[in-house]
Amino acid sequence: MMEEVPTTVLCAEQCHLGEGPTYDVATDTAWWFDIREGKLFEAHLGGGAIRIHALGRMASALGRIDAERQLVVAEDGCYIRTLADGAMTLFCPLEADNPATRSNDCRVHQSGTFWIGTMGRTAERGLGAIYALHRGKISTLFPGISIPNSICFSPDGAKGYFTDTARAVLYAVPLNPDTGLPRGEPEVLLRHTGVGGLDGSVCDADGQIWNACWGASRVDVYSPQGERLRSLHVPAKQASCPAFVGADLSRLLVTSAWQDMDAEARAADPQAGCTFVLQASARGRAEPDVKLA
To answer: Which sites bind a divalent metal cation (predicted)?
Structure first.
């Protein structure tokens, strides 16, 4: 059964490809990207003010370093962004010598290790990978990925999840909770069937996996065993990624996109690309900071 929960439009700016939402509890600020347009959105939830920052490059995710700095994952590497003035300084290159790829789904592990996905700009098969930025050094975790998505972690940090959307499989992999690095091989947790595809995900405080189902106007909630527990309606067909927001982390921010829609499809999906907040009655978790050293 599809749940219709109270939903508001947080931002009516229609993203070409909205992605990478995260939330800073300390400042009550949500952040997300329009990958294709090279924009970073900043929304202060209490006051309602929204700023849009032009980055000059495609970027897909960020992690908080500290109160003054963020680590932004972009098409050619990871940049330290200073909040005071928006200045971006290259921290480390990533596939900078391959103009055919860009960054995609990413998330920070409780240890401070940042998992980063890359993919072909037109989703070429097997052109991407998932990397770990651990204590300032990048290593390859899973090569040959077409569309990396659903990167998230169990509350105890002992399990990681990811998907290659092209394969319609959500994988679970055992991790060292102190490092966020694999200590075993990925295993199939679930196979997605029916309408839509597995896109971005986030884990809640109970270990449930909240997945944006691209092409199906919904967010699905799965148990750690892969059983679908809930499906929440999203008023845009191409929901792309969720994040827990609010002082008690009970609400769900969901990005969306109008990518690959023609005029007729966009007319039939008038809120495509908007960013929403769902009253999800969730038990979310705060995102950890990135550790660079």
So the answer is: 19, 149, 199
